[in-house]
Amino acid sequence: MQTIFFMFRSEIPRERQKDVLHQVQAWSKIRSADWFSPNSTDQDIRRSAYVVVDASTDTSALTNQLKSLPEVESAFIPSERGWY
Questions:
Q1: Contact partners, residue 42, CB within 8 Å, separation at least 6
Q2: Which of 3, 11, 48, 82 to pair with 67, CA 20 to 30 A apart?
């Protein structure tokens, strides 16, 4: 499994963000899509979301697809961290 994080543009209303998140959830390669921390008091964190995909998914292409959405400000693949 791999995760891609993305952030909605600040001017996009929450209802539209919800609509887009549901649309992304329906994409064929997406296993799940959800908010990073929907109850956060920080507005930047509240507009952050993520998708989970299979390890075989081309995450670079999917990241670019997310970035191409007009409602999305940024998307990225977090760097891997090892266990210490």
A1: none
A2: 82
Structure token digits, residue 40: 């956060």
Rounded Cα distance, 33 and 50, in Å? 6
Q: What is the pTM of this model?
A: 0.89
CA nearest to 5, candidates 27, 28, 34? 34
Q: What is the pLDDT of residues 50-81, one digit of tens each?
A: 999 998 999 999 999 999 999 999 999 988 76
Are 5 and 78 in contact by the 8 Å Cβ rule? The answer is: yes
- 50 touches 62 (CB < 8 A): no
